[in-house]
Amino acid sequence: MSTLGTVAKTVLRRRYLRQDENGTVVETPDELFHRVARDVASAEEAFGGDADAVEAAFYDALSGLDFLPNSPTLMNAGTDIEQLAACFVLPIEDSLDSIFTALKQAALVHQSGGGTGFAFSNLRPQGDVVLKTGGVASGPVSFMQIFDSATEQIKQGGRRRGANMAVLDATHPDIERFVTAKADEGTLRNFNLSVGTDEPFWEAYDSGARYDLVNPRTGAVVDQMDPADVLARIAEMAWATGDPGMLFLDTINEHNPTPALGRLEATNPCGEVPLLPYEACVLGSINLATHTADGEVDWAKLRETVHLAVRFLDDAIERSAFPVSETDEIMNANRKIGLGVMGFHDMLVDLRIPYATSDAVEFGRDLMSFVHDESWAASRDLAEERGPFPNWADSTRERPMRNATTTTIAPTGTISLIAGCSASIEPIYNVAYTKHVLGGLAVVNDRFVDMAKERGFYSEDLLEAVHGRTSIQDVEEIPDDVKPLFQTAHDVSGAHHLRVQAAFQDHVDNAVSKTVNLPQSASIGDVEDLFLTARDLGLKGVTVFRSGAKSEQVLGDDPRK
Ligand code: ADP
After folding, report:
1. CA separation for the pair 177, 104 (Å, rounded)
2. Rounded CA gap, 191 and 243, in Å?
3. Which of the four pLDDT bands, split at 50, 70 and 90, describes residue 479?
């Protein structure tokens, strides 16, 4: 078993290790890894596999911190709440019955540790008629408040609050209200917002035309808007608060592996998994930081971990009990999994490639291409063993696969803390800082410290000098060839963040969660430009966060806090 750092131990103790009814921790980290490995591997029995051998391999990968599944798997596998997926999308139709059914289903998902996404686009707009009562409708944004309050009250077994994504189509008459819904600090704090756009919106934008706002209840065009005005408003709010982001729904649906089952209209809370109504996804991330040796990528080990991880995630679907029966059905039929990576920046440091370079972008693309190809190979192997996902014949997948999708880039907000690596494909935020959510723990970047010692520029004073800084580029004691390796989120331009996102998106079935950081001095125009660049790059969605903007992204655990 790898040695866990203080942060990892603290996070595990607070949120993951089993507790008795008095809240006393009754499990060690090693026992946790055994519990998860044993439970997930037990799925092998149904397919005539060697559950003991697979359990041992899972245990080695988990305890070696080579691969970690999403938080619900770590918390729930082998317990009474055997719900292992992080991501859900629930449908909402234009009736009180449907709205409150979704509210109840969301509560059950949150209680089990999952996050929910919804398209609110089918709801009739504010002020529209309610035939039954002769009253007026409250509209999507006020119903979102109800979901927000409910989320606030459900503490996921005391471990964390739930998280939601609300999507509203740009053609909805309440779009302006939606875009500005988080203008007041503290409102909808358990929601991320995304405006759904499609080709007609962008064609109108390109030609300087207006586009139609349509009442979803009647299909009637009720108004027209200038898409440039809507984009400007989105950019203004994103500049001020970080919300909303945008989704490119046509791009998402071009890559929908099961178009016969309907259109993808919403994503999970952090945007990395577009899902059909009721669909869920079990995520897992490979820690790239443990896949280098002597300054090179250990490709053989990486291949092995990818294959094992795909098996793990498919087994996890088998083991998981979902809180909503419709989810059970569609999960068994599509079997979507989302394998991704974390520790990308750590790997770049080992390879001596600075994050903010074209080399890093091209390396990221090649790396993800490898992970993706190997994950498909693994899923095809599983299809031979266990049969393809039941909707395969109706899908866009040419050869039999066990899973409709295999890859995703998740934020890894908490699991990267357990693995002790840089989050997801993000640049580091600091080389040394105090982690307030963990009671003021001091955290230092091991690679930075090792390099400082090796190169002879280490001192206590240096650590103090860099502590809490969001950039070390002007710290004199650090040699000029070392500085670029530790570029932080603040040293990286918004455009570069997007290029990294696009490079990974090229080889990801689902989507990529990426925070596109901008300096405080960025203008509203800069934000608008980034949205346009994201569209040009063929991204599925984009979220921009300007330093100092008001609201926080709803994340499991923001690595920056
Ligand atoms: P983790 O590191 O805890 O596994 P991530 O930060 O990678 O999680 O987030 C992955 C997904 O997990 C999110 O997109 C979301 O669907 C879900 N998720 C994250 N945090 C929460 C939360 N507090 N409540 C509910 N779901 C969450």
Report:
1. 25
2. 9
3. very high
How many CA within 13 A on the CB side of residue 341?
30
CA distances 398 to 38, 171, 259, Å, are 34, 34, 14
What ipTM is given for this predicted complex? 0.95
> Looking at the predicted structure, is the pLDDT value of residue 369 above 90?
yes
Regarding the beta carbon of 512 and ligand 1, being less than 6 Å apart is answered no
Comparing CA positions, the residue from 388, 427, 390 lying closest to residue 516 is 427
Spacing, Cα 556 to ligand 1 middle (Å): 5
Instruction: Please return the burial class of 322, using the count of CB atoms within 10 Å of its CB with bins 0-12, 13-18 and 19+.
Output: buried
Q: How far is the CA of 198 from the centre of ligand 1 (A)?
A: 27
What average pLDDT score do residues 72-101 get? 97
Distance 336 CA to ligand 1 centre (A): 17
Single out the catalytic residue among 76, 268, 430, 510: 268
* pLDDT tens for each residue of 389-403: 999 999 999 999 999
Assess whether the C-beta atom of 192 lies below 6 angstroms from ligand 1: no
Report, in angstroms and rounded to the nearest whole number, the Rg of the chain calculated over CA atoms: 23
| 402: its two tokens | 């066990």
- Would residue 270 show up in a list of annotated catalytic residues for this protein? yes
